[in-house]
Amino acid sequence: MTLAPLAFLIGVGSFAAGLLGSLTGLGGGIIILPMLTLLFHVDLRYAVGTSLIAVIATSSGAAAAYVREGYTNVRIALLLEIATTTGALIGTMLFAHVTKANLSILFGAVLIATTLRSLRPRAEHAILTTPDRWSAFFHLDSTYPTAAGPQHYSARRIPLGFALMLVGGVLSALLGIGAGIIKVLAMDQAMSLPFKVSTTTSNFMIGVTAAVSAAVYLHQGQIDPTISFPVMLGAGAGALLGARILTRADVRWLRPLFTTIVFVAAIEMLYKGFTGTI
Amino acid sequence: MPTRLSDYEVDQAIGGLLRFGVIIAAAVTFVGGVLLLFQHGGAPVARQTFQGEPAALTSIASIFRGAMALNGEAIAQLGLLLLIATPVARVALTLGAFALQRDRKYVVITSIVLALLLYALVFGKA
After folding, report:
1. What is the pLDDT of residues A15-38, one digit of tens each?
2. What pLDDT digit, counting tens, does each position of A133-167 carry?
């Protein structure tokens, strides 16, 4: 295929990915890599770099809105970014030593975990306000806006959250994803933060984590402007539109649709990995 | 203390910077992409096998040089580089805010994150 039609098709696909990822909350980056490798037969090394570009483009717009609304805890984000950026650097080092087949299998496994988690109804745990030694030391206690006014909260098990974030950073760099599933696991489950605070703070951290590995991959020649420019513009525009219509339209029916697409992509990535045909 | 920045003001500034960075990056990438299509739109593309990008598109200095010469590929790559730099600028802004708030612990924490980011951006080695 020549450049013009290829760029057009990749742009349209990325727009759909950004839109669906934003409307369902699963993120736009997660389906970009399977789209590039499975549909457009792009080499995995280019696809990982390009996917990180989509991750930064789709998360930054939403992060700008959330941080202004007061849900994002900037201190928690920065403390945990030490872990995610270190993990991302480790991930870029590991990348050259993992075979494409194994990366494909790992990707499929993370996609399946993400779809399973999105199907499970989430239970909001009690908001913790009792003081915690680590939370107090790092000034992580904060408030977030609710209908009944600002609600105070505190953080728990910070070393465990930090360790999980290190793993999240490694996965983000290896697979070119935001690894939102690990980040929300660390903050919502391990650190017992309110759900809205975990998701928005996670989104806020994704850009910084992805910037580390994207920068390394750019220097290693894994970011190709020909493929990446339509992905960035398409996914970014899709995410922006998604954020605009999310509050007005009833989009619950989209979730099973997008989850099915992600699940099929996961099976295909696993199959290609196990048969070594990626 | 009126001279100290509140967390609210910091949040507004960070949100604004993020938006501004993404818009600039998208505009540059768009211009580069359009030029790239005019310059090479009919050329065949083969990315099935990894060859690695040429040196002209892998270092910050050469990307700027290419963009100055109005090379579409280099301008698009510059837009992508600006997108990658946006979270770095955000962390740098946060560092300044913590310094103004005299929050010493977070000046240290933010400096560590910024150092890791700059190391990746400038040296690109892990």
Report:
1. 999 998 888 877 777 899 999 999
2. 888 888 888 888 888 888 888 888 999 999 999 99
pLDDT at A149: 85
Cβ-Cβ contacts under 8 Å between A and B: the total is: 207
Per the listing, tokens 């990307």 go with B63
Residues of A (209-268) whose Cβ lies below 8 Å from B: 210-216, 218-230, 232-233, 236
- Structural domains of chain B, count: 1
Whether B67 and chain A come into contact, CB under 8 Å, resolves to no
Quick one: tokens of A95?
A: 């990348």
pLDDT over 70 (residue A48): yes
Q: When comparing pLDDT for A160 and A196, which is higher?
A: A160
pTM, to two decimals: 0.91
Task: Return the bridge partners of A153, or none.
Answer: A142
- What the block records as the tokens of A278 is 């990626």
> Which H, E and C letters describe A163-195, residue by residue?
HHHHHHHHHHHHHCCCCHHHHHHHHHHHCCCCH
Contact status of B126 with chain A (Cβ, < 8 Å): yes
The CA distances from residue B37 to A3, A184, A218, A236, in Å, are 7, 40, 21, 20
Q: A151 pairs with which residues across the strands?
A: A144
